[in-house]
Design a protein that fits this description.
- The protein is an alpha+beta fold.
- It folds into two domains: about 5-90; about 95-165, Zinc finger, CHC2-typedomain (DNA Primase, Chain A), CATH 3.90.580.
- It contains six helices and four strands; from the N terminus they run ααααββββαα.
- It has helices spanning about 5-15, 20-50, 55-90, 95-100, 145-155, 155-165; strands at about 115, 125-130, 135, 140-145.
- The chain has a four-stranded antiparallel β-sheet with strand order 1-2-3-4.
Length: about 170
């Protein structure tokens, strides 16, 4: 079902979820559907080249391909809409500052200033968390709150900043 940005926002608010996260997940869903459509097109195209198909079978495959191409066109327009509406909100310096001030303890489980590393499998806490930064002594990586959200949630910079501002 194709939803407007306003419907996605409304549902996100109803379920107490970050709006950017909901839009991000909707974009992921649309991408997956587009990949599924590509797979269906490939399969049907392979059937078309079979010399044993009769005229009726060939027409059915053409009808199915026509429907699939229409769905694909609708999903591509929807994906473009999600991306354009999503980019309308520019990231400001204040938004970045607020995101960086978001308590790191709300993003990772910090016990006595240490946490399990977000970059590799960790059985003993090797990530030092202080002054709203995290540093792992095993993999020698350092993150701020924006980096942590990007790494753990698979978001891009702008999405992570918006997520931390909500």
């Amino acid at each position: 079902m194709i939803q407007t940005i306003e419907q996605i926002r409304s549902k996100a608010i109803d379920f107490n979820m970050p709006i950017d996260w909901a839009i991000h997940k909707k974009k992921e869903y649309v991408k997956e559907r587009l990949q599924g459509i590509e797979a269906q097109k490939r399969i049907l195209s392979k059937y078309l080249i079979k010399p044993t198909l009769n005229k009726a079978e060939r027409e059915l495959i053409f009808l199915a391909l026509t429907d699939i191409k229409k769905w694909e066109s609708d999903l591509l327009r929807y994906h473009k809409l999600l991306n354009s509406k999503y980019r309308e909100n520019k990231i400001t310096d204040d938004m970045i500052r607020i995101a960086k001030e978001y308590p790191i303890e709300k993003l990772v489980d910090v016990q006595k200033g240490k946490s399990l590393c977000i970059n590799h499998k960790d059985t003993n806490p090797s990530m030092d968390c202080r002054k709203n930064f995290a540093h792992c002594y095993v993999c020698d990586e350092t993150w701020d709150t924006i980096d942590i959200v990007m790494k753990t949630q698979g978001m891009e910079f702008g999405e992570a900043v918006r997520y931390l501002n909500e």
